[in-house]
Amino acid sequence: MMSSSQTEATSGQHGAPAPPVFLRKLRRAAVATGCDVRLRVTVGGHPQPTLHWYRNDDLLPSDDQDYGGLWIRDCHQTDGGLYTCVAINPMGEARTSAVLAVLDLGEECFYVVWDGAYLTEISLLHSPGSSSTSSSSIDLGLA
Fold first, then answer.
1. I need a surface site. Which of 32, 88, 117, 136 has the fewest CB within 10 A?
2. Contact indicator for 73, 31 with CB cutoff of 8 Å
3. How far is residue 141's CA from residue 30's CA, in Å, rounded to a whole number?
4. What pLDDT score was predicted for residue 54?
5. What pLDDT is recorded for position 115?
């Protein structure tokens, strides 16, 4: 649950200028080849910051972006690397980075998240080529 100050920072309703701040930062993750993954952040600041996404210092096109998220579809091993989200507004800039590993482990799609040295989430996604889009998630409660 967000504190009132976090809610104010993300809503921007109070109008006081504030530099960008990441309320949810990127976390290290691994995904199987052929799977889709969404890297997510939550950012506060007023006015609302613009977000720019990079992989290995290369600016990514905005095609697969929504505010606070970057979709990587049909992952290949070449999609692995250091991902960075930069939030910018007139008051300043903030950035968060994490490594995404793409592993070729066969038919099953999975997504694994680490916080520090701890495994915090495992998601089993649909198999590559399957018409199913369902997923199940195990939240290990360590975040």
1. 117
2. no
3. 18
4. 97
5. 61
Q: What is the pLDDT of residue 107?
A: 63
pLDDT in tens, 71-92: 999 999 999 999 999 999 999 9
Amino acid at 6: Q
Give 44's strand partners: 21
CB 102 within 8 A of CB 77: yes
- Tell me the pTM: 0.72
Distance set, CA 121 to CA 44, 97, 110, 135 (Å): 24, 18, 10, 13
The closest of 106, 111, 90 to 27, measured between CA atoms, is: 111
> Left, alpha or beta for 67 (phi > 0: left; psi -120 to 50: alpha)?
beta
Task: Tell me how far the alpha carbon of residue 40 is from its chain's centroid.
Answer: 2
Q: How far is CA 53 from the centre of its chain?
A: 10
CA gap 104, 35 in Å, rounded: 10
Q: Give how far the C-alpha of residue 121 lies from the chain's centroid of Cα atoms, to the nearest Å.
A: 13
